[in-house]
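Tokens in:
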């Protein structure tokens, strides 16, 4: 019985190590490997879960998400003055027009924000949790730009207050 548990533990460690290695290779190395897609999905989901727990537990206005928060915030607000970050729509990120505005914004953070273009889950309605209907796939720098702004402008307070009132 003990041997089986040790073997499973070793496989778990080796599996995690293999997954970490696989996720560090360039995308071109894979084609459309469904195992890699599943690993990316799990990584994005885990990131979303950790972030939501964080804004539920700590007053979001005090959070610092990156060393570049001030630059991301000011550049985002200069570029997207009228974007409704409280309630995003898919076309705010995915329409052809939106992509043309987002591309130069995101690219200026290449080499500045680690993994700036990694896929990340983003909530459309900032007052709600991550659900299939309320989640969109975005790049990491889009996530940071929107969530830093939501935190600084008080839009994530609803999540924090809802969780802290249950305590």
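Residues out:
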């Amino acid at each position: 019985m003990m041997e089986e548990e040790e073997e499973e533990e070793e496989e778990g460690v080796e599996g995690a190590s293999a997954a970490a290695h696989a996720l560090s290779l360039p995308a071109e190395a894979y084609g459309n490997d469904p195992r890699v897609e599943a690993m990316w999905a799990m990584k994005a989901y885990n990131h979303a879960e950790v972030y939501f727990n964080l804004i539920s537990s700590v007053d979001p206005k005090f959070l610092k998400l990156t060393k570049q928060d001030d630059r991301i915030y000011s550049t985002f607000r200069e570029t997207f003055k009228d974007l409704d970050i409280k309630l995003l729509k898919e076309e705010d990120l995915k329409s052809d027009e939106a992509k043309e505005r987002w591309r130069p914004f995101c690219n200026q953070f290449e080499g500045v924000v680690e993994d700036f273009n990694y896929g990340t889950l983003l909530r459309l309605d900032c007052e709600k949790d991550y659900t299939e209907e309320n989640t969109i796939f975005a790049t990491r720098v889009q996530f940071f730009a929107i969530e830093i702004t939501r935190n600084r402008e008080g839009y994530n307070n609803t999540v924090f207050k809802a969780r802290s009132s249950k305590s």
